[in-house]
Amino acid sequence: MKPKTGRNESFTRVIDILESNYSEPIVIVETGCIGNTTEESKMGDGWSTVNWEYYAKKTNSHVYVVDIDENHLKKAKEVVPPSDLVQYTKDDLIS
């Protein structure tokens, strides 16, 4: 079942495009992650990690989530636990 987040419509389109263009698993790098776990935040921020995990599970793809803020990483891991398909890294994407 597709996750319900604030950017569901756009993620549904992106996932449809990916599925029609790639027959093999892909690697997804998400820069920045869930910073707030409230229901209001879920509908406003988009919660990309949830959507990428959904796609990864369907296709055996891999998601690498990178954020400089340890608190954001902790909150994201509460919503989408690390797994063989979703890995988290604390790092600065600008440097």
Task: Walk me through what this model shows.
With 95 residues, the protein is an alpha/beta fold. 45% of the residues lie in helices and 17% in strands. The chain contains four helices and three strands. A three-stranded parallel beta sheet has the order 1-2-3, covered by helices on one side. Helix 1 (8-21) runs parallel beside helix 3 (48-59). The longest helix has 14 residues, at 8-21. It is globular and about 35 Å long.
SSE succession: HEHHEHE
- Shape call: globular
Beta content: 15-25%
Report the end-to-end length measured between terminal Cα atoms: 37 Å
Total strand segments: 3
Uncertain spans, ≥5 residues at pLDDT below 50?
A: none
Residues in helices, as a percent range:
40-55%
Structural class: alpha/beta
Mean pLDDT over the residues: 89
How many whole angstroms does the radius of gyration measure?
13 Å
Instruction: Determine the number of helices (DSSP H or I, runs of at least 4 residues).
Output: 4
- Across the major sheet, the strand order is 1-2-3
* Main sheet specs: 3 strands, parallel
